Amino acid sequence: MTFDLNLNEDQRQICDAATAMLEANYPVGRLRSGAPDDLAQLTEFGLYTLARPEEHGGTGFTPTEEALVHVLLGKHVVSTRALAGSVAARLTTDTLPVCAAVESGDSLMLIEPSENGLSLIFGTGKLQLVRAASITPAKSLGDGVPVGRARLVDVTVVAETTQQKTILLADLLVAAQLLGVAQGALDLAVSYAKIRTQFGKPIGAFQAIKHHCATMAVETEMLSSLLDMAAIAVTESQTDVAFQVAALRLLAPKVALANARTCIQIHGGIGFSDEADAHQFLKQAHILSRLGNGSAVLDHPAPLAPHHELQGGQFT
Amino acid sequence: MKLELTAEHRAFQERAREWLLANVPHERAPHEGPAARKFATEWVARCHEGGWSGLGWPKEYGGQGLSPDRIVLWYEEYVRARAPSVLDCTFVALNHAGPTLIACGTGEQKDFHLPRILRGQSIWCQGFSEPGSGSDLASLSTSAVIDGDHLVVNGSKIWTSYADNADYQELLIRTDPAQKRHKGLSWVICDMKSPGITVRPIKNMAGTRHFAQVFYDDVRIPLTSVVGDLHDGWRVAMTTLSFERKTAAMGLQLDLSVKVEDLIALAEPRPGTSTYDRLAQLRAEAAGLRAMTYRTLFRDPVTPSDGSLMRLYFAELAQRIYRAAMDILGPEALFDSHWSYDYLESYSETIAGGTAEIQRNIIAERILGLPRE
User: Fold this and answer.
1) B44 and B66 inside one domain
2) What range does the domain containing A218 cover?
3) Alpha helices of chain B — where are they, by DSSP H?
4) Which of A135, A296, B96, B337 ranks highest by number of CB atoms within 10 Å?
């Protein structure tokens, strides 16, 4: 069967293994301690070499499996250093810690930077691996993960790429993480709605809550379906890959932020507190939304665009 | 997970594209009355001659027996060719009544009706909703008593699309008054020319009369017209749900992508404008709906209700697209056009076939497992 959107055996196995590893080591509740994630378990899992060919010491998976694993990382709100490391593995074989970074005016904003580490700038049309000479620690949004700021003039480029394939892959993985955040927020909201009782019944029995949850589920299903299409397009280098990834990258932040918002609302008072996990999804969605910006959805012909705009059909 | 177009797929696409290019009518379909019937039945007859009618129906019943991958490729070419909307007066026959007869009908029922449906020779309408039974369908009260070898039907159905054009109706009625709700219903074929049937067309908010209220006054229906077992109509009605993901409804979903393309062509948006951003968003959402359509076809469902996620997304996206069209048209939106007509028609998307609110309840309870009220 050439049209098949079920996970194949390899995909099921890698997802099961990743889920088990994440549940054991990175339950979302860990974030309450405020300690930065130790990513050693991910290195051991082989996260950074998932898609590297076996003859080069990797696992030989495709971007599809890699994206599926990043969905699970997003669901567990794993530090964006894991994401940055996965993308940086395309630019260097160096194993220095890498953090995600984004340009803002004449400065570089670094998410969870480490001493002597590198930063991956998710820029427009290019990815740059850089070393920042001096990083000034800063207070982050809502006392979340540590952030720092460096002057762009103090930044040295170690490696960079403008290769479309790598940029699309980066956008795919960012979107995969955002989908994971959306799923995590949905799951948390639904499980809370089942146990929180008011007026003598679980709040999930009330339509006001049900409908919020259903809306989250619909949007998540849409995004998840689109992720599959984009991941397959990247893996199989289909002609509509730029469009599929652009569409995914445009919608992913909106769905993740909306789900995180609704998750907080469904939790009521505790949702506004630092003691529940709802706000973690919101903050992670804001961080991920700033990484990479994809290309404009209207710049690439859509699969069902008029024939003259498409050359050679939608798949190759 | 893979989506791989083989040489055979490409040849199929090419064949579909060429046939559609040569055969799609250039004029728009009329919305109501005998003109709508003539247009729709001629189009189905032409599709049948070309070998494009009953795509998913088994070959033994005169269908094409195509697999879902071929069917989705056909509908992609279909909507790109701006072929007539699949949701015309032939929709119920081809996508609901026909498949139901194939699954549950007698040999005689199949032999008589299926060839007529495939050739566009008979129009069917649906008789499920009632004035007192909308979202709560199982409360329906149109009933029949058995008199010899006939059922005698009394009551009323409403929101019956194309009732005035239809030859037959799939009619869900209460045949066992001792049983309540889903039990004691029967699914019967009602000949719309039977004495005692009155059709009152209802003008809708888009200004056309394609739906109606139907009254039954001692209408006699032979017991041989019961589909499935007597009093087992709910099961028969549910049987067709499994067909739904393979029906022409996918044509409607894919068509939204084309509507967005047409809107982009109409608006010619410039980067940096709000219209540009809005159309980019809609184009991405239409791609999202297409992805859901593919998932529904090519991934095994986790729960039988999975399709309700896609139906709800479709309904609300359709409304967003037509709202955008009204804004893009500007003052011209106040005049009748296919955009303004479709805009008004789109209000039915979140009502017909289960309101958005009912869909959300289904999603919350059957997919997410939230407690019933």
Assistant:
1) yes
2) 164-309
3) 7-23, 33-49, 68-80, 91-92, 98-104, 107-118, 233-239, 249-267, 274-298, 307-329, 338-345, 356-362
4) A135
Same domain, B223 and B279: no
Q: What is the pLDDT of residues A288-308, one digit of tens each?
A: 999 987 778 999 989 888 765
Q: Which of 67-96 (B) contact A at CB < 8 A? A: 68-69, 72, 76, 79-80
Cβ contact (<8 Å) for B288 and A213?
no
Confidence class of residue B243 from pLDDT cuts 50, 70 and 90? Answer: low
A268/A152 same-domain check:
no
**Residue B201 structural domain:** 124-236
- Judged by a CB distance cut-off of 8 A, whether residue A135 touches chain B is no
Q: Taking CB atoms and an 8 Å cutoff, what residues of chain B touch A307? A: 17, 80
Residue B56: φ, ψ to 5°: -95, -5
Q: Is residue B108 part of a domain?
A: yes
Q: Contacts of residue A11 in chain B, CB cutoff 8 Å?
A: 1
Chain B contact present for A275, CB below 8 A: no
CA distance B250 to chain A (A): 14
ipTM: 0.95
Q: How many domains does one find in chain A?
A: 2
Q: Which of B111, B239, B117, B233 is nearest to B173 (CA)?
A: B233
pLDDT digits (tens, 9 = 90+) for A180-238: 999 999 999 999 999 999 999 999 999 999 999 999 999 999 999 999 999 999 999 99
A313 touches chain B (CB under 8 A): yes
Query: Is residue B350 in a domain?
Result: yes
In a domain, B241, yes or no: no
Q: Are residues B340 and B258 in the same domain?
A: yes
A181, A285 Cβ separation under 8 angstroms = yes
